[in-house]
Write a structure and sequence with these properties.
Length: about 140
Amino acid sequence: MIYLVVGEQGTRKTKYLVEEANHEKEIGNSNIVFVDTDDSQVRILDHKIRLINAKSYKIRTVEALIGFISGILARDYDIGKIYIDVIYDIVDINEEDIKDLIERLNALSEYSKSDIYLGLDWKKEDVPQTGQAEIIELKLED
């Protein structure tokens, strides 16, 4: 299953993704990978969660991102969840790309039986409606 964690900048998407990943590891669910664009989460992620800095792998396109995630899943058959945060810092994901990205991530998710969470600085109403992704909307706190 694909989960899109959406909300404007400052809605604590990173905090949500980190807490979800830590919670899943705490309850003992399979291997977990956290893909980010820097190493700033290293101290707050459970040490058993694999943190990968996507910027180190020169990912710049949606095609490269799909290949990267495919490689991660091919390398470890025991991955149950992948959390992808702040990828929009290095990959331009626009309305044209998002539908294709969701479809292709969904195919990977189904094949590998892994859940994929993708954090996006988007409003819920800007995400194209597909039946392939569950949307988790975070809002600014008053």
